[in-house]
Amino acid sequence: MASFEVIGGNKLKGEIYPQGAKNEALQILCAVLLTAEPVTISNVPDIRDVNKLIELLGDMGVKVSRTAPDTYVFQADDVNLEYLQTEKFVEQGRAIRGSVMIVGPLLARFGEAKMPKPGGDKIGRRRLDTHFIGLEKLGAKFNYDTPDIFYSATAERLKGAYMLLDEASVTGTANILMAAVLAEGVTTIYNAACEPYVQQLCRMLIRMGAKISGTGSNLLVIEGVEKLGGTEHRMLPDMIEIGSFIGLAAMTGSEITIKNCQIPELGLIPDTFQRLGIKMEFRGDDIFIPEQDRYEVDTYIDGSILNISDHTWPGLTPDLLSVALVVATQAKGTVLIHQKMFESRLFFVDKLIDMGAQIILCDPHRATVIGLNKQIPLRGIRMTSPDIRAGVALLIAALSAEGKSIIDNVEQIDRGYQNIDGRLNALGAQIRRL
Ligand SMILES: CC(=O)N[C@H]1[C@@H](OP(=O)(O)OP(=O)(O)OC[C@H]2O[C@@H](n3ccc(=O)[nH]c3=O)[C@H](O)[C@@H]2O)O[C@H](CO)[C@@H](O)[C@@H]1O
Ligand SMILES: C=C(OP(=O)(O)O)C(=O)O
């Protein structure tokens, strides 16, 4: 288990480039299974979860070549389905959430798929009903009643269908979409997730020859085609990393320019941090955060307390609430953080309370944060990173804190943030990997 030793209290300064988007990468990589032709993917982040999925694809027989540090060519012309019976596959599938999205492409192209219960953050119940029910509507038969939670599915030829998803699941929509593009006839997915990750997947599939309308909306209509061809795809910058850097700048009172953000794709993210009082300027496609000694939380028009909550896209992503919460600890004012989607994602506030933050955990979904207005700095402590986003929120807290912090289990942070210690040290942070 690796740890970070963080000496807090330094102001950072400079430019930082966001990595390619983790959650987009996990979808796009699974989509290479839909064609026997080469697919070139660039702006691939060099992070644990993505590297694990690339390794899994390679072990399944997909030819993988890295043509530049962030660019890969994949060719799935000789997929070994027997690999899905091996213990190594089970281990790999269990290690990441993204592995669940091999099911749709495998069913569509080969008529069979297997997978263990996928991994990912332990941040609440993460059910897969939406995936399975959707794929069943396309004609797949699932066997998921196994004691070892190893699912298998078969389908002779998937057939298009109408479906109204019970929830707008991000990976569920991607999985069903990837199955529907090769199904016979028309599939309509209503209440589809429309996060930029899914939009990017739609664009890639269309370039491969798929017929999809409704990209960016919650109503996708897919006319199945016989086969798909190769393409080139470039990943968007990671919007969660961009939000994390905005929060980091505010907490540490630093002047940071976040380069090449594709600002129109960020939805409510900049606005949310602005409501927390953080000033920023859009300079072309860069976000400039000036040095600010203080920031003051907005209230609603009627003067009531600001509430920051998650929602399916185009609402605010749940993956940034931990960062918003940590930023609120040093703001002037009070904020209610309401994490609606996940029930175990706010428990990390006990570490922030140990650091001196004023937070009332109202219930598993809601925390009231009374900002310290930078009158009293947080103090460094030893803590463990429970999940990827809490991990980065604790890192931001430690960088702003007085004294030394140790953060254990930083593999959680490495799942989604590329060389985060090296990149932040280049801006003046003091982070040592132990
Ligand atoms: C690999 C990947 O892409 N992971 C992301 C993906 O996970 P993932 O696709 O697993 O998450 P889902 O979208 O399926 O669901 C997330 C949670 O929200 C709940 N839910 C979802 C939709 C809805 O309308 N109502 C509702 O309550 C679900 O029950 C679940 O607890 O999307 C999540 C939600 O943006 C993000 O946190 C994850 O980082
Ligand atoms: C929850 C997340 O990831 P995963 O779905 O891979 O666990 C995340 O990226 O914040």
TrEMBL record:
* Pathway of action: Cell wall biogenesis; peptidoglycan biosynthesis
Enzymatic reactions: phosphoenolpyruvate + UDP-N-acetyl-alpha-D-glucosamine = UDP-N-acetyl-3-O-(1-carboxyvinyl)-alpha-D-glucosamine + phosphate
- What residues bind UDP-N-acetyl-alpha-D-glucosamine, as annotated? R97, D319, M341
* This enzyme's EC code(s): 2.5.1.7
Q: Does the entry feature the keyword RNA-binding, yes or no?
A: no
Subcellular location as annotated: Cytoplasm
What does the entry list as the binding residues for phosphoenolpyruvate?
Answer: K22, N23
What InterPro entries does the annotation carry? Enolpyruvate_Tfrase_dom (IPR001986), Enolpyruvate_Tfrase_sf (IPR036968), MurA_subfamily (IPR050068), RNA3'P_cycl/enolpyr_Trfase_a/b (IPR013792), UDP_GlcNAc_COvinyl_MurA (IPR005750)
Indicate the residues that form the catalytic site: D121 (proton donor)
- Indicate the segments forming the Enolpyruvate transferase domain, all copies: 8-421
Which cellular component terms (GO) are annotated to the entry?
Answer: cytoplasm
| GO biological process assignments | cell division; cell wall organization; peptidoglycan biosynthetic process; regulation of cell shape; UDP-N-acetylgalactosamine biosynthetic process
Q: What is the similarity comment for this entry? A: Belongs to the EPSP synthase family. MurA subfamily.
Q: What task does this protein carry out? A: Cell wall formation. Adds enolpyruvyl to UDP-N-acetylglucosamine.
What is the official name of this protein in its record? UDP-N-acetylglucosamine 1-carboxyvinyltransferase
Gene expressing this chain: murA
